[in-house]
Specification:
By secondary structure, this protein is of the alpha/beta class. It has four helices and eleven strands.
Length: 163
């Protein structure tokens, strides 16, 4: 099962200058809970924006750089190669960035999206979710509070032909 996981604003903004646009502790907790124990596929810039290697996950970095190397990570030169490197793990998560999301949207089985309620200036965006291809199967709304500067919703989409 190939799952896209992201936090995107109402205007699909993901980030700017290789950084997140918000800090939502409950989103980080959900990300950790869902991805722990599974391979995560990401672009090079997304990997380089992380604080380091995330525990209990196989990191697969997609890059066009032939000689790219990061200790503790697998390197692929295409999304297809990255998927092959997962060794058919039951769940594989695509964690960004924008270009990797676009490439994987057609072949993904589900989307775990944290929708941040607001519009943001960004240079990286999540692709538009085509409602004829995807069905929203779960929604959990969270108000803004002292730890979260923005209201947000956890959304789960399943590809319609997989329902």
């Amino acid at each position: 099962m190939l799952i896209l996981i992201a936090a995107a604003a109402e205007n699909n903004a993901l980030g700017k200058d290789n950084d997140l646009l918000w800090h939502l502790p409950n989103d980080f907790k959900r990300f950790k809970k869902l991805t722990s124990g599974h391979p995560i596929i990401m672009g090079r810039k997304t990997f380089e924006s992380l604080p380091g290697i995330l525990p209990n996950r196989t990191h697969i970095i997609v890059t066009r750089q032939e000689d790219y190397f990061k200790e503790g990570c697998l390197i692929a030169n295409s999304l297809e190669e990255a998927i092959r490197l997962t060794n058919n793990d039951g769940k594989v998560f695509i964690i960004g960035g924008g270009e990797i999301y676009k490439q994987s949207l057609e072949i993904a089985d589900s989307i775990e999206l944290t929708r941040v309620h607001g519009n943001f200036e960004a240079d990286t965006f999540f692709p538009e979710i085509d409602q004829t291809q995807w069905e929203l199967v779960n929604k959990e709304y969270h108000e803004k509070d002292e730890r979260h500067n923005y209201a947000f919703s956890f959304l789960t989409y399943k590809k319609r032909n997989n329902l």
